[in-house]
Amino acid sequence: MLYRELGASGLQVSALGLGTWAIGGTWWGGAEEADSIAAIRGGIEQGITLIDTAPVYGYGLSEEVVGKAIKGYDRSKLVLATKVGLAWHVSEGQYFFELAGERVYRNLKPATIRYEIEQSLRRLGTDYIDLYQTHWQDNTTPIAETMATLLQLQQEGKIRAIGVSNCTPAQMDEYRAVGPLASNQPLYNMLDRGIEAELLPYCLARKIGVLTYSSLALGLLTGTMDPNRVFAEDDQRHGNPRFTPEAIAQTNALLDRFAPLREKYGLTQAQLSIAWTISRPGVTVALVGVRTAQQATELAPGGNIALTPEDLAAMDAILAE
Ligand SMILES: NC(=O)c1ccc[n+]([C@@H]2O[C@H](COP(=O)([O-])OP(=O)(O)OC[C@H]3O[C@@H](n4cnc5c(N)ncnc54)[C@H](OP(=O)(O)O)[C@@H]3O)[C@@H](O)[C@H]2O)c1
Question: What's the predicted TM-score (pTM) here?
Answer without folding.
Answer: 0.98
